[in-house]
Amino acid sequence: MDRIALVTGAGSGIGRAAAIRLSRAGLRVVLSSRRADALAATAAACPGPTLAVPADVTDPSAVDRLFGRAEHDWGAVGVLIASAGAGYSARIERTSDADWNRMLELNLTAPFRCLRRVVPAMRARGYGRVVVIASTASRVGEPYLAAYTASKHGVLGLVRAVAAELAGTGVTVNAVCPGFVDTPMTATTIGNIVQKTGRTAEQARSALEARQPIGRLITPEEVADAVWFCVASEAITGQAVNVDGGTVQS
Question: Active-site residues: which are they?
């Protein structure tokens, strides 16, 4: 089967690493994020064919256009990696409705819309792989991350429910749950720590590293390997695969 993968959030970080990993495995990869220049950089790093489709997945109509473009140009998507996401940190009393809704829209509702759009064709073909990039915040509560943690707990529930619904159809649905990864998102977290605490960037980074038993940040490539682990197997579905250096043992 000539497999076609679609990766959201492919412009940087985990999404970029996952796209490169899939490309190296021989898949044709549809790359999506908001910035065309970032997608061009990802495409240049992929050894195989790519199709760059800029899109804001928080826009309901953009999701349909994204998959429609992939289907028109290449055919049905057999592998979906939902990697687009963002974080937000604040005390609960300082978390506005807008902050809350932004986390839910990007981290939970967008993957839901992508799943809803891609599943019918996967079910009809009897093959599909969906991997949602969640977080260790899908597994445990974290202070000052109420909106982010709620969105990530929600997306893990979505993964488990859809995996149960599709069991036996040839379609698997899993979540990969990274800890602190060496990505632009973590760089933003470090910047926020510096701003709020007065620590240096090096001290802030060291504090995040120390929260993981292996004593360092996870690399995007290590997360991409876990993504491929889920894509390569039909026996793994409904799972939350931690890639966190031993932070959350389950």
Answer: 148
